[in-house]
């Protein structure tokens, strides 16, 4: 079905309470990890997003059957593996599908997974995933656009990642969980989504030590049992709403958050002049009547400032008088928001991965999201303008933001998405 654009009439103060959705990027690998057990697994806190439906399609292809048992609760069951491939049609739709490789290596001993290719913000290599598999004893061949992996016996040994990678660490963990070997991963990611994956796997009986540190030790176990698990809240979505509060000089209460996952964003907003109050499971962001200051931001792996919030922060800074410098070395080409923000009057000069932003008032314009977080940047910008902004490319926003227009309305934004006109209704 053709999606209609998102309309936003900005210039309003937001107020009230908004609950962050469960984490997309934690849920995706945990859904895949559920197939390491042949028993049923129930997950709570699964966001209803198009990326989740894509990973469920892939899981279905390999043999996982699922049923929604609550608004955000899902039961998954993989009694046996029916296919050991992840075809291009699904991997090209969503890069996170590459995580299927580790799970299939563990459960089925083999996997044929399409190379993910590029995405809207550039080339995203998987060399560290493949190097880790090979170092731990998996044979991996590249042929016809696919990686073909096979293991004889258990994975064992040590691999030192050349850089911090969330997906690479998760893939290596998944591959090593079953069997009798001992695997050590050095320079492993300490991202919240890696820690949550480990929490989930250990709750099913895996033996993974060192979560939240750069050294992980995985003692392979013979089998995982079924179980029940709650996925962490989405820190990227929460960060987006924190920035929305700052951009509209509003006070918002964010619930279902882990304030300790949001400290880099809180620190930047505080530096700008926003008041942030942390409580257990919630955050109060207060930017009412504040004159905000420009700041410099550089993205890093967790616990640094997240690349997934860079476009939204750039949009906010484009509205703050003065000069801000934003650098995204994690994804140097994550810049598709810039040309669209220019259409709204932003003054942003790009050199390599550096944006030099001269902030000032923006105006409404028709714009188009080319990827998920660029779409988020556009709705932040739209919230600050008096006129009506029409954001096309809603399919990208639907990948990461649940019921966005409805939830923005619940805190006072004037946001709506007209219903599509069906062909039959036009006859
Ligand atoms: N990298 C390599 N080689 C590899 C793997 C990664 O050079 O083999 C590089 C990447 O090019 C990047 C850096 O390492 O420069 C970090 O990439 P990482 O592997 O950590 O990213 P990812 O696991 O592919 C996840 C999120 C992304 C998020 C990044 C960084 C999921 C499904 N995706 O991707 O989320 O940007 O971590 O935090 O978890 C999003 O939600 O909008 C999104 C793109």
UniProtKB/TrEMBL annotation:
InterPro entries: Enolpyruvate_Tfrase_dom (IPR001986), Enolpyruvate_Tfrase_sf (IPR036968), MurA_subfamily (IPR050068), RNA3'P_cycl/enolpyr_Trfase_a/b (IPR013792), UDP_GlcNAc_COvinyl_MurA (IPR005750). One of its GO terms (cellular component) is cytoplasm. One of its GO terms (molecular function) is UDP-N-acetylglucosamine 1-carboxyvinyltransferase activity. It catalyses: phosphoenolpyruvate + UDP-N-acetyl-alpha-D-glucosamine = UDP-N-acetyl-3-O-(1-carboxyvinyl)-alpha-D-glucosamine + phosphate. Its main location: cytoplasm. Phosphoenolpyruvate binds at residues 24-25. The active site is at residue 119. It is an enzyme of class 2 (transferase). Its EC number is 2.5.1.7. Cell wall formation. Adds enolpyruvyl to UDP-N-acetylglucosamine. This is UDP-N-acetylglucosamine 1-carboxyvinyltransferase. It comes from Deinococcus phoenicis. The gene is murA.
């Amino acid at each position: 079905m053709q999606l209609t654009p998102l309309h936003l009439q900005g210039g309003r103060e937001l107020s009230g309470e908004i609950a962050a959705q469960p984490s997309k990027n934690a849920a995706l690998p945990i859904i895949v990890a559920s197939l390491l057990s042949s028993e049923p697994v129930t997950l709570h806190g699964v966001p209803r997003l198009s990326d989740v439906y894509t990973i469920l399609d892939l899981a279905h292809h390999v043999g996982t059957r699922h049923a929604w048992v609550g608004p955000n609760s899902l039961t998954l069951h993989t009694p046996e593996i029916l296919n050991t491939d992840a075809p291009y049609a699904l991997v090209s739709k969503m890069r996170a599908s590459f995580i299927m490789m580790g799970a299939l290596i563990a459960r089925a001993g083999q996997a044929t997974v399409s190379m993910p290719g590029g995405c809207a913000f550039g080339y995203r290599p998987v060399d560290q995933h493949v190097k880790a598999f090979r170092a731990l004893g998996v044979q991996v061949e590249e042929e016809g656009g696919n990686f073909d992996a096979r293991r004889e016996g258990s994975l064992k040994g040590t691999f030192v990642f050349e850089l911090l990678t969330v997906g690479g660490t998760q893939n290596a963990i998944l591959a090593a969980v079953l069997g009798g070997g001992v695997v050590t991963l050095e320079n492993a990611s300490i991202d919240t989504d890696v820690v949550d994956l480990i929490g989930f796997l250990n709750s099913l009986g895996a033996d993974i030590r060192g979560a939240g540190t750069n050294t992980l030790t995985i003692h392979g176990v013979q089998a995982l049992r079924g179980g029940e698990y709650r996925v962490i809240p989405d820190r990227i979505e929460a960060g987006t709403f924190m920035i929305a509060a700052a951009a509209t000089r509003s006070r918002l209460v964010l619930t279902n958050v882990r304030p300790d996952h949001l400290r880099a964003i809180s620190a930047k907003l505080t530096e700008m002049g926003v008041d942030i109050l942390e409580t257990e499971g919630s955050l109060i962001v207060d930017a009412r009547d504040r004159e905000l200051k420009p700041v410099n931001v550089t993205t890093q792996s967790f616990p640094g400032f997240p690349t997934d919030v860079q476009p939204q922060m750039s949009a906010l800074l484009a509205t703050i008088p003065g000069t801000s410098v934003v650098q995204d070395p994690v994804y140097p080409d994550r810049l598709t928001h810039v040309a669209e923000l220019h259409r709204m009057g932003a003054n942003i000069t790009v050199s390599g991965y550096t944006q030099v932003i001269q902030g000032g008032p923006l105006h409404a314009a028709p714009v188009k999201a080319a990827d998920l977080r660029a779409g988020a940047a556009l709705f932040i910008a739209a919230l600050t303008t008096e006129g009506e902004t029409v954001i096309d490319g809603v399919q990208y926003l639907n990948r990461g933001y649940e019921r966005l227009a409805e939830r923005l309305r619940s805190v006072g934004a004037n946001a709506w998405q007209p219903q599509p006109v069906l062909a039959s209704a036009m006859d």
